[in-house]
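Page 47, continued from p. 46.
Same chain as before, 502 aa.
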Amino acid sequence: MDETQHINAGREPLKREIEEMVKIYRVPGSPITPRKGVTIKKDGITGQFFGNGWITFISPPDEHYSASSEMDLSGVIGKLLRDGLVTFFKLSVDQDNDDPTLNRMSLGPGSVGLSAEVRADPVKILAYEQLIGEMFFILYATTDPVAGKDGTVPLVVPQVWKDVANNVVEFEKDFAKFAGFRPQMDAGLRSQMGKKLLPVDEISRRTPSLDWITILRSVYSNGPDAPKEMVVHDEEYLKKLDALLSKTDRLTIQLFLAWSIIRQYGRFLDKAHRRNIDDYKQKSDDDQDNRAEFCYKKTLKIVPDIIGHYFVETTLSKPARDKLEEIIITILESYSTSLQSQESHEWLETSARKGALKKIENLVQVIGYSYSEPDNRSPSSIDQFYSGLDLDGQDHFGNQVRASEFWAKVEFETLNKKFDRMHMKDIPTKNNAYNRRNINGVYFPAGVLQSPLFNVDFPEYLNYGGFGATTGGHEITHTLDNYGVTFDETGRSGSKVSADRD
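Result:
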């Protein structure tokens, strides 16, 4: 709620994030290289010593850069992934397709800001390019051009930043041809795009421009052992990206990485410094007239279990939860009784009927909130879970960045744990129940367990007609629908069509 500190921080927090990238991926003569250092040359090695802490850049002769580009680029990609940012790749930890009790690391395509809609319109491409030039100018002009301004005076962007923007856009045009989500593909086709489990050293061999052992060591630098193999979602993507990286100069890659950081972190700046982003998107991420609602949404995203704990305490009493559990059990018993009767299911093959019965008997039900990682009922469990997240009331931007790093770390560390079927992927306040076929589970967040669907003081016919039919019975039925039948009682599927469907 302290907007003054947010305004006073200005552009510096975002510049520091970019400088952290530049330390790893150095380019002589780059316009975003910090100029505050004192350069000292000794024994043919150049070092830069900075006043904002004891930071040293050791820069061998220029020919080193092409020779070390594989390791430097791999190191910086690993750092950005560890920070929760997406550039050339997206790493995620998902339930293993062959063994639903395990987690598996997945490697998917990266993303660009140059969407298909923008690429199809030359006017929109120019607007996107203008935004990039403006944001680099705002960050790197000697005198901050927007601090204390009302935004009504247009920016006069120097040619150097126009050239930077053009460089980034031309690269993104090539990258966007094969990167990111392709909406024209249906779920079944996307699931057959060459998904394959590969050893990490094999992935490195297929991408000579990168070293995946280095990337994953960076991602897991402060945690458990890195994975030895990963599920690659699209082998063709690896091939095309490697070809693009191998022909792209080092400066262009550095500028693209810087823009990726701006694109993902820029929305955390104060209103003056992100106004150009808001204008380009034609919306504001920060309604100054309703600051409390804005801050609530940010808090809900960063510490959902803390808010969820108090929401559950207020809205879902133990008698109410016990009643909900009773309704679910009654519905499941009705399913079981019906499926056990061969006479009432003559149209159904015996093997199918027994398989359906097994799924119903093994269906996981989570009512109200998660019981683990953390347990939303337990303040000590929540406190322990968030102990690695450092929040500072005087550092709004830093809170967003540290939260991104924290949640990336939480996800990556699940790799070395068994898959938790009792964990609810959505926050307790969510007003929607759902079925997860790849788990064989139904989940009912506390937010949906309210009037008019349910009230512990309602007569049974209202609770069964409301929650029982429209929520409980509906979600359980997904277990046996045309998608649900492709998963067994553990969530295993030979060819996944859909992992989640509301």
